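Field: sequence (string)
Field: structure_tokens (string)

Example rows 1 and 2, in order.
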Amino acid sequence: MSDLNLQLDLAWRLIVAALLGALIGIERERHEHPAGIRTHMHVSIGSAAFTVLSIYSFGQGSDPGRVVLQPPTRTLSRPVVPKLALPLLSSPLIRRVAWHIRRIGGQLDLRFFLSLAEGILVFVAVAAVLITAFEKPLTIESLFDSFNWGIATVLGQGDAGFVTSPGGRVVGWLLILFGVAMLGMITGALVAMVIDFLLKEGQGLGASGHQDHIVVCGWNSTARDLIDELRGDDYKQKVVVLADVDKNPAGGDVYFVRGEATDAGDLERAGITDASAALVFPADGSDEADMHSILTIMAIKAVAPKVRTVAEVNNPRHEPHFQRADVDELLVTSKVASHLLARSALYPGLSAIVTDIVSGGEGSELYRITLPDEYLGLSIDTVSTRLRSDHKATLLSVNRGGRAFVNPPSDFVLQAGDDAIVVAESLGTLAPLKLRDVHTAAGTLAPAPTG
């Protein structure tokens, strides 16, 4: 259903509910009960809006009675008053809502609202002339009073004692019905916006709103294992999956953006400009999938050149093409597997050890950390000893200016900006290296160690 048809359907439902509520209100007023036409109209509109939210908001295959069966007083009886603070304004949910409001605002036609306002004023002006003709002397002051009463009646605040003649009461009822119709249209539009927001979010057509997150472009078995690995990591990182699939393949705790990773608009919805890293995965093992990954990297670099990109490559012969696309890091799975199998043939058990370290076996999690300031100026042997004694961590390499020094000479001395890769049971008091810091460190050249 299109947005216009949805709004018309909602408005029609709410107007019918208002009319039925008005009939109840007329009967109540005839018996001199306190709640009259206006009150029952408003209650009917609220009930109808609550019901249509249940019908439209949860998609196909869901139970439309899931909201109706839950009394609204159950929610209202325990109100939660949010603490308004600056971080709330920058939360992902607020940023998503703001994105949808901008999207809907760009589709609105200002001339429609001007025409609607003109129509309301003309209707009330005609009603004011009729009220003055039925009830008041034909003067400018009487016309103004009737027009003011007409506006108040449309807004639900008109004085019922202002008119006394049968013709005046009929005009007053028409104004009340007109006001309720306007309220129904506005409520229908607002309900349609809420439903549109929920449907777009559920279909992956929203915007992530995250910052300093990881964007996963494409989906395959490696990406699925990556999500599972990140879920168990000590350093929690928000993840957004951008893939051209029908539903979220990663589960509810990962934000899903349905789209094409080579499209700048879809990358913007995934928050690529605010991301700390982008991981690109081929859809399958073909050469065409590698070509698509290269186009994805080029699109990312065009939109967010400072975001670090890491790509999985199927064919080792495509490595030069990825490098020309300015990828920051490559993982050629076939090359890694072949090298590991070759070393395991020479040194039995090596593949199990490497797999245990990389996959986070018991006591062997792999971390890239920021070294404590007190380690600056110490030799590599002293740093290795301190890491082992202070943090129960085994040093694997020191990284300087984007270059990794594995097993450096004993006179290698730590400098400012160095970080390290360690194997440890957990991070403990060690600080993980921020992904944005990785990109900064890679931009400086590292001098070769002396010795």
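Row 2 begins here:
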Amino acid sequence: MSGPPPGRILVMLVDDDRLVRETFGDLFRAESDFDMAGAAADAEEAVAVAGAERPDVAVVDVKMPGGGPAATRGIIAVSRGTRVLAMSAYDDPTSVREMIRAGAIGYVVKGGPATEIIDAVRRAAMGLGHLSAGVAVDVVRELAGKLDREERDAERERDLRDRVDRALQPGAIRAVYQPIVDLELGRIAGVESLARFDIEPQRPPDQWFGDAALIGAGVDLEIAAIRAQVKAFDGPALGKAYVALNVSPEAALRGDVFVELAGLPWDRIVLEMTEHARVDDYAALAAALADFRSAGGRLAIDDAGAGFASLRHILLLDPDIIKLDITLTRDIDSDRRKRALSTALTAFATEMGMSVIAEGIETESELVALRSLGVGFGQGYFLRRPAPLVEALMPIEAIHMPDRGPLRAYPGSSSTGAGRAATGGSGRDPASVKTSGPPAGRPGPSADHPRPA
């Protein structure tokens, strides 16, 4: 149905009493600005009529078969623009409260003056509440409180959208990078790129991404962050190091991320998918990632060991890199259970031709323990905090390693001493350790939103 002409009100009547339907139908048709959308005798029929006709106002009997509150919720669910006006044979505060909680905007009594009922319908069409004069004071207060809450909720959503809109503007996001270090050779193999927001209010990045997700703009904010992060490829500072980006499954499935990555060396890009990123359809994700992976792009499963989902991702996505979660890294030098699990994951990775990166290394003892377990790569505050690209790639200060000697940065490939040889070099790169590239069509990568380090 196309709806009434501008300025007219499309009304639906819901009541199990045929005489009431006929009487109110005649009353509404007598108004020059009213059109009847139809009538219904029970909640199920009311929902069907509302879905088909999309009335401006539905006048609903509170005691109808199926229940007035159920009918109200169903009508609003299928026709969000419809305003529900509750109707009863007498003033009934309990029923009014139930209808208001279900979403009704007002309440009239069947036996009330016709002018009051007509006025209530017109007010409802404008989004204004109405209560019959005999309704108890506590019901008035509840309706007023509901309207106040709706206004506060609307104001919060406006503020939320305003914040996210500002975060999407050019210059709002600044990229920082944390080096990923080859723990055997002591060289910087790549960097993980992270987002920082240079706008008010100053908050952790995960809160910005959480806000964006609430209003359906999560992927848009991811793409804005990636746009800032891939500027690392614009100058010589990166050398031959790779860049790891956090990308959600939704962003990969939508394909926006690959538009941003077009023209960049995909064999020097790693997409990280967190343990917390839900994957509903691995086959669809594989298809979305097939071109990227066949062109040399690599997949890392982030937060491995933090929960069952990471193991499922590893088994079904066949990644190139497994990143041990910080909960495994922390105190690994003194916790044999963490050492045992890390050893198992490392052995699995070795068997499958994958490399392992330990996240969150914060002490020298943890670093020594990880190296003794055969973990090939690491990142964390002990090695370097996230920083601008040039600073992130500066030579790592010598760290005394009784078992292997000091760490050092990659020499020679850029002015910062960072980077690795693409082929034939002496450095290893976790994005190139796997013995064979992924076959086309296998499950592909994705990752969580950029996270604070």
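free_text_note (row 2): The two ends are 54 Å apart (CA to CA).
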